[in-house]
């Protein structure tokens, strides 16, 4: 999948029908004021364990919410609206910014985004395809 407005061409995401809102691994998160509006600047590393293809994103703060993790801990998170390209369709979805450093996927796609015309087959993987081989090799430090 990709986040075209954020300049992220490929990011490995996991479908999570148990999560209401989608979640993105973001770091160096900084809120700021732009013409009286609350905005946020953050960095996205689309690949695990590397800074390859890192990008800086700025967008308005849509909301702030208490989100309960799968372990039961509640945490305040910033919510932004992001365009998500998933299986050749573009949807705008609410996305919480979180630290997913220890997780295998940089992004979770929650059920609110999936309600925009997707069905889930839990027995299948990578139905939207994988990043091109050149991108995967670059991520692993190979050319």
Overview of the molecule:
The chain is mostly beta strands and 143 residues long. It has two helices and nine strands, in the order βββββββββαα. The strands form two sheets. It has a six-stranded mixed β-sheet with strand order 1-9-2-8-7-6. Strands 3-4-5 form a three-stranded antiparallel β-sheet, with no helix packed on it. It is globular and about 45 Å long. The mean pLDDT is 84.
Brief sketch in words of this structure:
The chain is mainly beta and about 140 residues long. The chain has helices at about 110-115, 135-140; strands at about 15, 20-25, 25-35, 35-45, 55-60, 65-70, 75-85, 90-100, 105-110. The protein is globular and about 45 Å long.
Key features?
143 residues, mainly beta, 6-stranded mixed beta sheet, 3-stranded antiparallel beta sheet
In terms of topology, how is this protein built?
Layout: E1 13-15, E2 22-25, E3 27-34, E4 37-44, E5 55-60, E6 63-68, E7 74-86, E8 89-98, E9 107-109, H1 111-114, H2 133-139
Parallel strand pairs: 1-9, 2-8
Antiparallel strand pairs: 2-9, 3-4, 4-5, 6-7, 7-8
| Overall residue-averaged pLDDT value | 84
Strand line-up in the sheet with most strands? 1-9-2-8-7-6
The largest sheet, given as strand count, sense and whether it forms a barrel, is: 6 strands, mixed
Task: Tell me the distance between the termini.
Answer: 22 Å
Based on DSSP secondary structure assignment, what is the total number of beta strands? 9
Helix segment count? 2
The dominant shape is globular
Order of helices and strands: EEEEEEEEEHH
